[in-house]
Amino acid sequence: MSDFLLGEQRNMLTAAKQFIEFVNKGPSPFHVVDECKNLLRAQGFKELRERDPWKVEKNQKYFVTRNQSTIIAFAVGGEFKPGNGFTMLGAHTDSPCLKVKPKSGKIRHGYHQVGVQLYGGGIWNTWFDRDLTVAGRVLVKEGDKVRHRLVNVKRPILRIPHLAIHLNRKVNDHFGPNLESELLPIIASTVESASSAPGSTKHSPALLDAICSDMGVEKSQLLDFELCLADTQPASIGGALEEFIFAPRLDNLVNAYCGLLVSI
To answer: For residue 33, which of 75, 67, 62, 56 has the smallest C-alpha distance?
Structure first.
């Protein structure tokens, strides 16, 4: 192989590894936007806030966020004049996933479970038998203020198990789970959990404990949250020749990342 082709191969592998790092840092749309902000700031982009007056200058680069889940970045050329045309590229920061319900606490057959709702067009049977966790945005009370903070519990705390084969002999012929009653992650047993009283809280005490422990806050400080389930297995380069990307959330972080690179 020529030096040129070897160089191109190394460049592609480096680019793929950088994308994988981006995916691993974005288990939720809120984390994706936060990582986009970091990358844009590193390239000289300045943050604008919707509530403040804007002073946009030529030969400068800016970005603005909304709801911490949407980000818009733009550059103003040196020859820009009001009324000129412009080029726009769009992609979404969210991906199909399971999201924790506003009231998620469930107890069945001696297990605490977390009620989830379907978000987007996912292939839901692939969520079974995976080491799952939660990631997203939490509203935390700090003194007399309410803060937006990100959480990503790195350890596996949830699992949606299959039944043993002798309890479901037809699983290899057709597997179409009931999305309301069978797609319920287990988080703890009632034996080990601090509470086994149905309806005692909106959410499983084990879930709240995991969030508070990861963030270093008390339960009394938690006001609300928006959490996505995510696989704890990180994205990686795969294949014997390292030619594949094995990763979750390729829809649509591929376009989000490429759009970001074009912008910077």
So the answer is: 67
CA distance 264 to 254: 16
pLDDT band at 90 (very low <50, low <70, confident <90, very high): very high
At 71 the pLDDT is 95
pLDDT digits (tens, 9 = 90+) for 118-144: 999 999 999 999 999 999 999 999 999
Query: Under a CB-based contact definition with an 8 Å cutoff, are residues 191 and 136 in contact?
Result: no
Cα 158 to Cα 2, 80, 182, 193, 203, distances in angstroms: 49, 52, 14, 14, 14
Is 149:215 a contact under the CB 8 Å cutoff? yes
Residue 203 neighbours by CB under 8 Å, 6+ apart: 100, 103, 104, 105, 114
CB distance 226 to 99 below 8 Å: yes
- Report how far Cα 4 is from the mean position of its chain's Cα atoms: 37
Tokens for 37, please give them.
Answer: 């902000």
pLDDT tens, residue by residue, 243-257: 999 999 999 899 999
